[in-house]
Amino acid sequence: MSDHPSWPDTVQSLTEKLSVENLPHQVRSLKTLEEKVGKVLDNLSVSKKISSWLSCCSETKYAKSGGMAGKLRDQGNIKFGAQDNVGALKLYTESVICAPCVGPELGLAFGNRSAALFHTGQYQAACEDIKMALQHKYPAHLEYKLVLRQAQCLIRLAQYKEGLLALQKCQAALDFSKLSDDKKAAIVKDIAALETEAVKLESKPAKKTESSSAKELDNLDMPGASTKLELEVSNDRVRGKFVTATENIEVGEVLFHESPYSCVLLPPHYSSHCNQCLIQLVAPVSCKFCTQPRYCSGSCRDAAWSGHHQFECGQMDLLHSVGIGHLAVRTVLTAGRDNLLCMKGAVKAGTYHSTTTDPYSRVFNLQQHLDRLPVEEVFQYTLTAALLVTMLQKNTAFLSPERAVPGVVPGMPGKLQPVQLGMEVPDKVLHYVGGLILRHIGQLVGNAHAVTELLEGDDGDVQQVRLASAIYPSASMMNHSCIPAVINSFTGSKPTYNIWSAVWY
Questions:
Q1: Sign of the alpha-carbon dihedral angle for 219, 223, 226, 228
Q2: What is the DSSP track for 80-118?
Q3: For residue 33, what is the enclosing H or E element?
């Protein structure tokens, strides 16, 4: 893509060219959002430019490589042998990221990284890597080493029963090892010593730990909001929807503690934060098919795949180029094709209202204010929506699940059947989904929240850094104030809004 103009430059060029034909004004005058997207897609210059843009977005450079994974692991072994555990950990992590999900390299990379994690005292992360290694064809004759390390980690984590079970598994795994009898005897001696230690520690009284959990906020109208808040609606064009207090609110009280409907991590933080939950990475895993997003665990990776990444995989460079459009299309992916088609009639009839039982309805009904934006801005947002819905149509199975190849993981990049009779996406559906993406772009301009983190530099200077953009339907109901009464903080992608100036009802 570096040899081609950026998407913003492409959009600006198209705007200037098509202004001569008065297309931006024609788009602006159309009543519905899907009509706007349809008008743009029907233009020959636009459709050619979008096809050209999509064709130059190949991402083969992010493919997995068993050979590269092996080389990185070998380099990590050299660092590990020199007792440079931190250096080894970095190289083993890159090996994990590069390794294909088939073949031996991924299991070996996880296994070796677990050793580096163990020696840096990160026992929980080491346990997770050992589980992943055993799931990915780690050699049976070496399995005893992993299970012994797992037992050592569990004992250090005060999980004595689990540690004792791991020691039993280690004893059984020795039968498949290629060790000499003398070396086997030494391992058996180590197992016995660890068993004695675990039993002794287990018999000691456990230390009591206080568990702190965030107070649940069960506002019936705004999930994740305090019950001291109320959502009101005004018929005037100034206030719209807004939040008021129904009781006195003291300094320090929590007003909102809400999970995002959808969230997009910014590319500069891909190597340091989980692409799904946004926590800082210790021992990341990657997508099974590409090396771009990184996750804190297999569960976060799988949640991202089922929720959106199966349709974004192989399209990430394109999505990084469209700004807030990435969060807009992810919002549509999170809603899901079947849900979007089921509500199509209600959307067209104007009866798709916000309910607490339908999370997407609360996002859909946020204000989008596209009717108040300048002509050129509306046109450029429409071009971006047209690009994104065309990407979904041509490069993914989101709009046509029939194109997924039978027997292959659904949505696996590059594994789509050619469009055949009966697989075409009707223009009405294409324009409808494009209209939804355009709607979300308009909403997110004013309603997207910056997910931030405080980071301390080498000089001790602390700065607030933007990690991600997200949409929070309940918190979006708060009006802007130049003298705010709340302060927010984030745990991963979940913000907490605390009052810092008392509000009297």
A1: negative
A2: HHTT-HHHHHHHHHHHHHHS-SSSSHHHHHHHHHHHHHH
A3: helix 33-41
Angle between helix 143-156 and 123-135 (nearest 10) = 150
Does position 255 have pLDDT exceeding 90, yes or no? no
State how far the Cα of 163 lies from the Cα of 156, in Å rounded to an integer.
9
pLDDT recorded at residue 215? 55
- Angstrom CA distances, 226 to 85, 245, 480, 481, 502, stand at 46, 9, 18, 19, 15
Rounded Cα distance between 374 and 84, Å, is 58
Q: Which residues pair with 476 in a beta bridge?
A: none
Rounded mean pLDDT of the chain?
A: 89
Q: Is the CB of residue 334 less than 8 Å from the CB of residue 340?
A: no
C-beta of residue 144 within 8 angstroms of C-beta of residue 163: no
Closest CA to 258 of 449, 456, 14: 449
Q: Which residue has the tokens 């990475």?
A: 281
pLDDT tens, 417-476? 887 777 789 999 999 999 999 999 999 988 888 898 888 777 888 888 999 999 999 888
Q: Hey, how many other C-beta atoms are within 10 angstroms of the C-beta on 63?
A: 15
- Crossing angle of helices 375-395 and 33-41, in 10° steps, is 70
CA distance 6 to 11: 9
Tens of pLDDT, residues 194-213: 999 999 988 887 666 555 44
The 10s digit of each residue's pLDDT in 259-295 is 999 999 999 999 999 999 999 999 999 999 899 999 9
Residue 225 has pLDDT above 90, yes or no: no
- Per-residue confidence (pLDDT) for residue 410, from 0 to 100: 52
How far is the C-alpha of 486 from the C-alpha of 407, rounded, in Å? 52
What is the residue type of 273?
Answer: H
Are residues 286 and 96 in contact, defined by beta-carbon separation less than 8 angstroms?
Answer: yes
Per the structure block, which two tokens stand in for 198?
A: 């675990």
Contacts of 10 (CB under 8 A, 6+ apart): 49, 53
